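User: Thanks for the earlier help. One more: FAD-dependent oxidoreductase. Can you show the sequence and predicted structure together?

Assistant: Of course, both are below.
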Amino acid sequence: MGAGYAGVAAANHLTAEAPTPVRVTVVNPREEFVERIRLHQLVAGTGSAVRPLRPLLRPGVDLRLDTVTRVGADGVALAGGGDLAADRIVYAVGSGAGPAMPGALPVRHLDGAVALRHRVDGASAGTPVTVVGGGLTGIEAASELAEAHPHLRVRLVAGALAAGLSPAARDAVRRGLEALGVEVREGEHVDAPGDGITVDATSFAVPGLARDSGLAVDDAGRLLVDDALRGVDVPTVVAAGDAASTPLRMSCQTAIPLGIAAADTVLAELRGEQPRPVSVGLTMTCVSLGRRRGVVQPTDRLDVPRGPVLRGRAAALVKEQVCRATVRFVRRPARAVTRAGDGPLLPATVPA
């Protein structure tokens, strides 16, 4: 279920590694693969964030264009009518924008990014563009817009800027934004949009599908899982990516290995083995500041910032290579990116 980073990686890994022939079906509402880490480029008109989905799927993976309306232990119900039976379900529905403030447009999903692109293309010189949110999405959106559209007045409003980075990395981000002419207003909050264009980059939210299906979920609506990503109350449903309740941050850096790990859990059960606990270690945080600048913050396996910070043109090149690598990884998932044993083990969740 789902054809984002986690879903495509899981489907391809299952097809490549299954000990016996299996039938893998991907259910997704669109024929395109959305590169969420490039949505800010789509908004600014500096690049695309979509590519055909079918070429990313291995031969033997079926693609069914539909929307799942309910998840059960042995299959799913589809909006187009009928049910799709399954022995195992990989729940990889991802996440999107949280509730947006009235009048603002979200940048965290494709429809919002396309709407923003139209607004930006029609904006006259001097139009204010307010990006709300100081996380990586907001930073990349503000910098990309400022560099590609210097005739606009771009400002970034946030309670805190790049809060997950080290002080040195945060300083590099701030300097990069200011060099592009972005007005950074930290320690402020926006409750309602003002003049011009307001870009909402404040929060992620997962679909309510698991909750609506009566499955056990956390407060954010993510599927509660054990240490092998199996649903705590429906073990035939294996979650991956943003829709799985794990301590890992939402990102493609975690979605891809979680997709592979979910597939490994299914493969182990097909072999009659007990799945191993999932261990995913992280390596870095990358943020682009337009096409010519960036910041790369190394992290330890627990995602704690460490070491020297790479900045400028070199960091921009690293970030671009990372973006390209994600597509290669989902097409040909590598075992090396998951279950390495040097990351945190997922805790076993016990339902209340």
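User: Great, one quick takeaway?

Assistant: The two ends are 26 Å apart (CA to CA).
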